[in-house]
């Protein structure tokens, strides 16, 4: 397990926080911590991890000695009848008891299948760790994506409101110009149509923000979520310093998906060894220490002299048991064929995992590079559309441009602002997805993004 991972919040604490009514704007770190103690899929993955650890440790039982204690107590009522009784042998009854106890220790000495199972347990420990790390990384990306979806919806709503306000001012200006005879009714109708369209867009943006906020609340178990915006939109993350091939090579070594496939192949190879062990002999050692006590007689001395005597018997022993398989009805042969086929499948799964992770890493890398370039392009477009809007307003005021020119420029400006804001959020999430694909994603990467948010 990585030492950089956050310590999970107790579930009780997460539940208490989920009902807090005084929570203000929440940072990414705060919400991620709460999500670790609330998200059902992550809690399920954690429980599966603990179960896998316990299952892997069970393989110790095959190589460690097994010690057992046994005890019996018997009470017998014997009746002896002779066909021809004599002075020495007479008919009669007697009740006697027998008590026995023993301790037995059995130690496997040579059991190839058991040792293969023990080695599988070690691989299963590593496999459980890789699965848990993958679940943590998935939760981190999911919470971040949902968080920025809320911010993107907030920005969209703000831009739509600003556009609605600007269109309303343009509509009022068109009406004044029409009243004084300096503009036609067409300008008024164009402005009114654009205002109605913007109002419809505002309703859709408000609903989208509600849905995105509910999604974030569902992820962390809170209904009073308020996401923090970016502190400075001009500062984002730096582009990757390493080339794409370096990231791809790293993903093939460190990605939890590849590690799981590699460990599954190791387990499959050991399963083949276990199948071959069906042809091999086994050797066990056993130490037995026990004794018995007869009180009031025994089965061989039920009546007659000494019937009330007691005797003690101790019989410690040590033994070696060798078992050599001769014929098992072809079960072992077909078991070997089965495990070899499963080994080939695991090898193909590993190749597929490496190819998929490599492709995912390349896609994430190129997407991040393109996203950073797109942000710069949108920033330039924002400045250009603002200049175009100012020019159209000036032209409209002197009668060179018509009202629709101003309205189109306003629409283009606010659409560019929305696209720019979304592109910034996509870059931040894309950085996390690249590190997730490469298998290097840790909560420290989330901390770096969290520092870009407003305090």
Give a topology summary.
Layout: H1 11-18, H2 28-38, H3 40-57, E1 66-80, E2 92-110, H4 112-180, H5 185-220, H6 244-254, H7 256-276, E3 282-295, E4 310-314, E5 317-323, H8 331-397, H9 403-438, H10 443-450
Antiparallel strand pairs: 1-2, 2-3, 3-4, 3-5
Helix pairs in contact: 1-2, 2-4, 3-4, 4-5, 4-7, 4-9, 6-8, 7-8, 8-9
How would you describe this structure to a colleague?
With 455 residues, the chain is of the alpha+beta class. Strands 1, 2, 3, 4 and 5 form a five-stranded antiparallel sheet that branches. The N terminus is likely disordered. The protein has a single domain, classed as Outer membrane efflux proteins (OEP) (Up-down Bundle). Helix 3 packs antiparallel against helix 4, helix 4 runs antiparallel to helix 7 and helix 8 runs antiparallel to helix 9. The chain has ten helices and five strands; from the N terminus they run αααββααααβββααα. 63% of the residues lie in helices and 13% in strands. The two termini are 31 Å apart.
User: How far is it from the N-terminal to the C-terminal residue, by CA?
Assistant: 31 Å
Structural class: alpha+beta
Give the class-level CATH name: Mainly Alpha
> What is the element string, with H for helices and E for strands?
HHHEEHHHHEEEHHH
Low confidence ranges: 1-23, 303-307
Total number of helices: 10
Overall tally of domains? 1
| Total beta-strand segments | 5
Q: What's the name of the CATH homologous superfamily?
A: Outer membrane efflux proteins (OEP)
CATH topology: Outer membrane efflux proteins (OEP)
The shape, in one word, is elongated
Mean pLDDT: 86
What fraction of residues sit in β-strands?
5-15%
Task: Please compute the radius of gyration using only Cα atoms.
Answer: 40 Å
Please bin the fraction of helical residues: 55-70%
Summarize the biggest pleated sheet: 5 strands, antiparallel
The CATH architecture term is Up-down Bundle
